[in-house]
Design a protein that fits this description.
Helicase, Ruva Protein, domain 3; two-stranded antiparallel ribbon; 14 helices; 2 domains; globular; 5-stranded parallel beta sheet; alpha/beta
Amino acid sequence: MNSELDQLEGKIKDKSAFIDDIYTELNKVIVGQRYMIDRLLIGLLADGHVLLEGVPGLAKTLTVSSLAQVLSTKFQRIQFTPDLLPADLIGTMIYNQKSSEFTVKKGPVFSNIILADEINRSPAKVQSALLEAMQELQVTIGEETFPLDEPFLVLATQNPVEQEGTYPLPEAQVDRFMMKLHIGYPSQQEELEIMRRMSKTGKKEALKSVTNVKQIMEARSLINEIYMDERVEKYIIDLIFATREPETYPELAELKPWIQFGASPRASINLNLAAKAHAFMNHKPFADPSDVREIAIDVLRHRIIPSFEAEAEEITSEIIVDKILNAVPVP
């Protein structure tokens, strides 16, 4: 077993070297935001979509577009608006007068990385068209079905400030995102650096590509080989079941009236995959409880629906997850 792990470790160190190159390159244009970059890379490696929530001006769009540049992948930014139609997203049939035939015009969803900016600004029809593409990895236009390019990663942003004229994503649809991130403000030192960099007019720093689609797909297949002990797998299941049946743990009995719905089976799948991707990014051949705990809040925060009692007491899903992580025994 040890020799197998040693071989795997050598392979992972070789195949994950591009991760450090990505950080180095992105630091040329992005100040701080290591947490956001980490989670975007986990989503890319674990084949999971990411929902980003944060006030305007936190470099969400800049980070995503810069990431696409260094990955050498096709990138499309779609600004969601109330008048957007599903055809604006997936494409439509166009009548060609010369040939007297209908031809397919593909939409911006046919890219590797999609930035769905302010996804809650568009009505349900448009949201569901994108979410269907995320789930099925294919799009039907007219009578033809087209597979989407791989890798296919949707990074959707939500602005939590404005509620007027928005269409919140239903809980069942939010569940399709592997992770939901809360992007915070930079520190004083980071903001000073941002101000100095962005106050310069003229040409911005050019980014060079440090990897390609082939390398990303190889990394994805290697993540399946990362070792996870049965005790760590059981730990993931314990965490998920603690969100559904907190009364089974004496320390968590108080959570029962605070949780309306616990995490779905997608949570255990995504927690497993994200923990392995986190291990890969740290050049490790195995995923341990520290990898699980590191990304648990991002995988679970949008999958636990607090009850009215919890909202009345200002108990958020993050507080619930924190209590569960502190109470469930770590193997």
